[in-house]
Specification:
The structure is a single chain. By secondary structure, the chain is of the alpha/beta class. Helix 9 (251-261) packs parallel to helix 10 (280-288), helix 15 packs antiparallel against helix 17 (445-479) and helix 16 (431-440) runs antiparallel to helix 17. The chain has two domains: 7-165, Cobalamin-binding domain (Rossmann fold), CATH 3.40.50.280; 190-472, tm_1862 like domain (pyruvate-formate lyase- activating enzyme), CATH 3.80.30.20. Helices cover 40% and strands 14% of the residues. It has 17 helices and 14 strands. The strands form three sheets. Strands 2-1-3-4-5-6 form a six-stranded parallel β-sheet, sandwiched between helices. The protein binds cobalamin and iron/sulfur cluster. Iron/sulfur cluster (SF4) is lined by residues 200, 202-204, 207, 209-210, 245-246, 297.
């Protein structure tokens, strides 16, 4: 119920154009395809959006848990709900992800034209504040865990400042309660999202986590995490997602945490490095605490390519054995690969197929490199003249699902690279392979089947977009 004089804040998360928010063709002409195929794509896109990826934005949960008297906060997740513009809002806070800048700015303009104050925050704002200034009444630059109370107080007193810059990374060992009252719990596959650490000690040049969150791993206190898990379980008994980019980054800390989580009897999934396969005690703690599956960023199968992109913590010689050990312990592996890294050659696809078979990776994800503004690789490719769009046009560098090339690979001409990638995904993502992977999965067989089947659709759509891009390149060449 609205309280007289209370300021109302809407926290907004934006749906991405494609990818896990619902695969969609990048080709606007696709709307003119047959009714049947459009209906099929829309139905599958909705299934993908509502599938296991449908977890709430922790960032907005953290903000809405920072309570200030006289201010109420509601989360609006545009993946699942419409903007509630039939209600009065004093301020909107939009989370701006790199790769979805245009829709964020358009939304900001529409809200401001209605007299709603707009605050922008999130990864893109932290990295490119200057590009955001004209689109907001206020910017929050950095991790907003603590400063968000100040923003709300300023809103209440009518003294919102144009910029709030976080002076140093928040100390995560301070206990902050994350509550879910601003969320619509039913919209999600699960709402049990927990982050145990922030920051990343590694420096992969295609990633901006270490740019945004720093290289020092900041840990939450284990008792605070246990309390959070206990509280979350009272509201939602579903699976937990540990959102850390590397949940095994500090092995001692992770082992203690997951040993202490055992009595809660939760089921969980997370992201780890191959190194886990060489740590039997930690692996055992993961299994006993209810881990079901891990996403592992393998990227390339060659040291040359991984090193060219500053990924040094995943030696090629140990990859096969590590993945086998993790699967033998009973955990499913989502293996995330990138084809098109700097030292990759046309021989990589065959190697990759063999690796997937040999290790039994349950769900392979074969990505194209996304040079995203703010990453080391983006700056390097810009300097080398290898980007396919102007480096100033940030909106052109979207996170599509392997649907378009944004740069020229170093050792493979684009005209050969695209057919080699599409041929690879058409061999790896078949219904037959989906059934085979599900049958041999150590657990979670229906989830493994579902992911693999959805990928048959998503990579199929990606192939059409890429083939169109290749056709366009050939046409331009003929004309010029
Ligand atoms: C969990 C996760 C998901 C989940 C949930 C999405 C989410 N953002 O919450 C799902 C599976 C849905 C997902 C989807 C995608 N993801 Co994702 N995801 C993550 C992951 C692993 C954790 C996100 C998180 O909760 N972090 C913890 C919170 C606390 O940090 P934060 O989001 O940065 O928020 C802090 C500040 O940025 C700021 N802030 C954030 N929003 C706002 C808003 C306001 C108003 C204010 C004031 C402040 C503020 O304050 C917060 C608290 O300190 C990150 C990696 C990472 N370490 O962040 C990748 C990451 C965010 N994802 C990424 C990508 C590419 C995607 C997809 C495009 C994948 C795809 N191809 O489909 C989609 C896009 C979805 C979308 N609509 O934006 C990239 C984004 C890169 C970028 N933005 O520059 C990241 C950084 C991974 C990476 N290494 O590149 N993702
Ligand atoms: S890709 Fe993963 S390991 Fe590499 S810098 Fe990013 S978060 Fe860290």
């Amino acid at each position: 119920m609205a309280v007289a004089g209370e300021k109302k804040v809407l926290l907004i998360f934006i749906q991405a154009d494609s990818g896990v928010d619902g695969a969609a063709s990048l080709d606007s002409a696709s709307a003119r395809r047959s009714l049947f195929s459009s209906l099929k794509d829309t139905a599958l896109s909705n299934i993908i959006r509502r599938a296991q990826f449908a977890i709430p934005p922790l960032a907005l949960m953290i903000l809405s848990s920072q309570k200030v008297a006289g201010v109420s906060q509601t989360i609006c997740d545009l993946r699942f709900e419409k903007l509630p513009l039939d209600q009065h809002w004093d301020m909107a806070g939009i989370s701006v992800q790199t790769g979805a800048v245009k829709p964020a700015f358009e939304l900001a303009r529409a809200l401001r034209s209605r007299g709603i104050k707009v605050v922008l925050g999130g990864p893109y704002v932290t990295i490119f504040p200057d590009q955001c200034r004209d689109h907001a009444d206020a910017l929050v630059i950095g991790e907003a865990d603590d400063i968000w109370c100040e923003v709300q107080e300023d809103l209440r007193s009518g003294a919102l400042k144009p910029e709030y810059r976080v002076a140093s990374f928040p100390d995560l060992s301070i206990d902050r309660i994350v509550d879910k009252s601003a969320l619509d719990i039913q919209s999600y596959f699960t709402t049990n999202v927990v982050q145990t650490t922030r920051g990343c000690p590694y420096s992969c040049d295609f990633c901006n986590v270490h740019v945004m969150n720093g290289h020092r791993l900041r840990q939450r206190s284990i008792p605070a995490i246990l309390r959070e898990v206990e509280t979350f379980l009272k509201e939602d008994k579903r699976i937990f997602f540990f959102l850390d980019d590397t949940v095994n980054a500090d092995e001692q800390y992770a082992e203690q945490l997951f040993r202490e989580l055992e009595p809660f009897k939760i089921k969980w999934v997370g992201q780890a490095t191959t190194a886990l396969g060489e740590k039997p005690r930690l692996l055992d703690a993961f299994v006993r605490s209810g881990c079901g599956a891990l996403l592992i960023g393998i990227e390339s199968l060659t040291d040359g390519s991984n090193h060219a992109h500053k990924k040094f913590h995943n030696p090629a010689a140990r990859q096969v054995e590590c993945i086998k050990q993790i699967r033998q312990a009973g955990l499913c592996v989502y293996g995330s690969f990138i084809y098109g890294l700097d030292e990759d050659t046309l021989e990589l696809p065959a190697k990759l197929e063999y690796f997937i078979e040999e290790t039994g990776v349950d769900v392979p994800g074969i990505n194209l490199l996304r040079p995203i503004p703010g990453t080391g690789v983006f700056n390097r490719l810009a300097q080398e003249g290898r980007l396919l769009h102007s480096p100033d046009d940030h909106d052109a560098f979207k996170f599509s699902w392997g649907q378009e090339m944004l740069y020229k690979p170093q050792r493979i001409p684009l005209q050969e690279f695209i057919p080699s990638y599409t041929a690879l995904t058409s061999r790896v993502f078949t219904v037959q392979n989906a059934v085979k992977r599900a049958a041999r999965a150590p657990r979670l067989r229906s989830a493994v089947l579902m992911f693999n089947l959805l990928y048959v659709h998503m990579y199929g759509m990606a192939r059409k977009d890429l083939t169109r891009q290749l056709g366009g390149m050939c046409e331009n060449k003929v004309q010029s």
